[in-house]
Specification:
The chain is mainly alpha-helical and 159 residues long. Helices cover 69% and strands 4% of the residues. Keywords: Signal.
Length: 159
C-alpha cells in the first residue's frame, strides 16, 4: 500500500531530474540504466567516496532524529550542522567535475538545508518544525536515489 502511494511522487521526482538533465547542454550526462535511473560513471575510489558521504548522512539523520525524540534541540542542531556545507569540503575536485550539474545542485541544496535546520533548531527549539524540515530534505534524497545509480565494477557497468 505504501509503495503504491509513493509511486506518483517517485515518478515526478525522476521525471524532474531527467528534464533537468536534458536541459543542460555541454555538461556530462549519465547514461540511462536498465531500470531507468541514470548511471554515474565513477571508478571504485570515487564510488566509495560518494557512498561514504551517504553513510555519513544516514548516521547524521539517525543522531538528529534520536535527539529530536528526546527534545534535545542542541544535539539535533549539532547533528544537522555536521551534514551541512562543511561536508562539501571533503569532495575531491576531480570527483566533483565528473558529477552531473543536477546531481551537484541537489547535493548542495541538501547540505544547505541541513545548515538551515541547525540554525532553526537552535533558535526556534521546535521539534515539529525541525521534523518538517528534515522530511522535506529527505524527499531530495529520495528523488536523487530515484534518478541516479552508481553500479559496482562487479556488475560490469562501472567503466
Amino acid at each position: 500500500m505504501c509503495l503504491i502511494r509513493l509511486l506518483p511522487a517517485l515518478s515526478l521526482a525522476f521525471g524532474t531530474a531527467l528534464a533537468h538533465a536534458d536541459a543542460m547542454d555541454g555538461m556530462p550526462h549519465p547514461a540511462p540504466a536498465a531500470d531507468g535511473r541514470a548511471i554515474l560513471q565513477l571508478d571504485a575510489a570515487e564510488r566509495a567516496a560518494i557512498l561514504e558521504e551517504m553513510r555519513l548522512f544516514l548516521d547524521g539523520v539517525q543522531k538528529m532524529t534520536g535527539a529530536l525524540g528526546r527534545q534535545d534541540m542542541d544535539a539535533a542542531a549539532a547533528a544537522a550542522r555536521g551534514m551541512g556545507m562543511r561536508m562539501t569540503h571533503d569532495v575531491p575536485p576531480a570527483l566533483r567535475a565528473k558529477l552531473p550539474l543536477e546531481f551537484r545542485q541537489l547535493g548542495f541544496s541538501v547540505h544547505r538545508d541541513f545548515d538551515q535546520i541547525a540554525l532553526d533548531a537552535e533558535s526556534l527549539k521546535d521539534v515539529s518544525h525541525s521534523l518538517g524540515q528534515l522530511s522535506a530534505t529527505l524527499q531530495k534524497c529520495v528523488a536523487c536515489h530515484a534518478a541516479y545509480q552508481i553500479p559496482t565494477t562487479a556488475a560490469g557497468l562501472d567503466r
